[in-house]
Amino acid sequence: MTVSIPFNNLALQWQEIATEAGADIAELFVNSAFTNGRYVDTFEREVAQWLDTPHAIAVSSGTAALHLAMLASGVLPGDEVLVPAHTFIATIWGVLYAGATPVLCEVEEATGNIDVADAARRVTSRTTTIIPVHLYGQPADLGAIGALAARHGLTVIEDNAQSIGARWDGRMLGTHGLIGCYSFYPGKNLGAAGEGGMLTTADDAVAERLRRLRNHGESERYIHAEVGYNYRMDGFQGIILRHKLHRLHAWTERRKVLAARYTAALSGLPLRLPEVRHQDHVWHLYVVRTPRRDALRAHLRAAGIETGQHYPVPNHRQPCLAYLRHDPAGYPVAEAWADHGLSLPLFYGMTDAEVDRVAAAVRAFLEPG
């Protein structure tokens, strides 16, 4: 099978930034600012300005960001943290690394985001934190989440790995809770050339501790105030991400155009299309749903079209979490998302004609006759 339409094509992004970024990379090798350093500092300042937040702290990955968010927000062993059952498992790693217990919650049928009513039923005396995941590019219901947190004294930590640039009530996601966590995994809307992550916060003391924790717990050179981690971002990633950041708004607007074209072309089919329910959407993924998912995926593969699955195994069925003894029957919506979801190609640089070809192949499979 020859791939004619990939699921993503990151080379197109590099082509746009190659000249400018290449000059900075050459300079990097001259001044040896390989770890943290001037390029990471500049990237942090520009992200903070763009997100309109006082502090942006770059780290080595989105998983590192989630781990440090748990520590800096005061999550302790034995605490319970509310997380959606339908998310990439990195959301849960941060909880486990801190020694806390993830409490999996059902998700919304329309969006796949955390079901706040279900989360409320799972609050106990040990619950300290809730992590809404802004899934696929769309905000979770921060209004209901904020009300739940206020009612029970919970800390809100936003997992904004997939939705950088989206807004809730006019404010950027990642700036509503105590801490926002971001992933710059290459395939994200803002992706590194490797791994990278970030945390945002308006709390000065939390920001200071996050910076200390990412750098071996150093309070000053060779003085380690607490157990820390080597979670620093390297200068190369700071360069790549900074040059992409300058283009992110335009790239996001193009993603919105492509998503709208998909929706128009696929309407009327026996296929569940993505729904914009919560104010904004930056279209990290375009996920359709059908009980015939596997057959549709095979049909598209035969036509040279790559697709993705996000995520085919819900977290209550992950072997590493079996000790939590979650009842699979308690998560029918998460199960349906896992069993029926198919991510169609959607990336900056994709053409209208490519969207039309994907849509035509989907229609050929689903339309009668």
Question: Any overview of this molecule?
Answer:
The protein has two domains: 11-245, Type I PLP-dependent aspartate aminotransferase-like (Major domain) (Aspartate Aminotransferase, domain 2, 3-Layer(aba) Sandwich), CATH 3.40.640.10; 248-366, Aspartate Aminotransferase, domain 1, CATH 3.90.1150. The chain contains twelve helices and 13 strands. With 369 residues, the chain is an alpha/beta fold. The longest helix has 21 residues, at 11-31. Helix 3 (62-72) packs parallel to helix 4. Helices cover 40% and strands 14% of the residues. The model has no long low-confidence stretch (mean pLDDT 97). The chain has helices at 11-31, 37-51, 62-72, 90-97, 116-121, 142-152, 204-214, 235-245, 248-266, 293-302, 332-340, 352-366; strands spanning 55-59, 80-84, 101-105, 127-130, 155-159, 167-168, 171-172, 179-183, 197-201, 218-220, 223-224, 286-289, 341-344. The strands form four sheets. It has a seven-stranded mixed β-sheet, with helices on both faces. A two-stranded antiparallel sheet has the order 6-7. Strands 10-11 form a two-stranded antiparallel sheet. Helix 6 (142-152) links the parallel strand 4 (127-130) and strand 5 (155-159).
